[in-house]
Specification:
Layout lengths: L4 E5 L6 H12 L2 E4 H9 L3 H8 L1 H15 L5 E4 L8 H10 L1 E6 L2 H8 L11 H15 L4 E4 L5 H14 L6
Parallel strand pairs: 1-3, 1-4, 2-3, 4-5
The structure holds shikimate-3-phosphate.
Shikimate-3-phosphate binds next to loops.
Length: 172
């Protein structure tokens, strides 16, 4: 198989953007951060979109942006933490590429995101745990599952590349 998109999925703080940038470098592909595209499209930050228009509006724009990037070629795409959690978005991802779940333990995600003002949905520990539990069944539907644990960005990107080669998603 010769995939043209690698979609990185996982919870906030999983490292989708930093690992995605490195993976794109390793593959010589374009890197696309879905949230960056959304913020550019709207002309304001993700937090502002949530504050001014609310989450349902954000999800509409997120879906439109995903449909747009799915038409690009040879791209590593970092999805926001909620982007892989609807049937419609999953079917765009499934029909245009391979999804890779960056699985990071909840304690580590908490430690990384605590106090982060850029993430409107990152609130209390209890709410995060409940959101994480609701999202897990979606993340588990990704094609490839990578246990990220405490891997460095470079090691995580290399691990994904090896899996893609092993699974013949990429040609050596
Ligand atoms: C969200 C995660 C964020 C961003 C938005 C909503 C979520 O992306 O898309 O704040 O629903 O989990 P990151 O996963 O990159 O933080």
């Amino acid at each position: 198989m010769n995939a043209t998109h690698i979609y990185l999925v996982g919870f906030m703080g999983a490292g989708k953007t930093s690992v995605g940038q490195r993976l794109a470098q390793l593959l010589g592909w374009t890197f696309i951060d879905l949230d960056t595209g959304i913020a550019e499209r709207e002309g304001v930050s993700i937090r502002e979109i949530f504050n001014r228009r609310g989450e349902p509006y954000f999800r509409d724009v997120e879906r439109a942006e995903l449909a747009k990037v799915s038409r690009r070629e040879n791209a590593v795409v970092a999805l926001g933490g909620g982007a892989f959690c609807t049937d419609e978005n999953q079917s765009i991802v499934k029909s245009t590429g391979i999804s890779v779940w960056l699985d990071v333990p909840m304690e580590l995600l908490q430690a990384r995101c605590a106090g982060d003002v850029k993430r409107p949905l990152f609130t209390t520990r209890e709410e995060m745990e409940s959101l994480y539990r609701r999202r897990l069944p979606h993340y588990q539907k990704a094609d490839i599952h990578i246990d990220i644990g405490n891997l460095t960005v470079d090691a995580a990107a290399e691990e994904i590349r090896q899996r893609l080669l092993h699974d013949k998603v990429l040609r050596a």
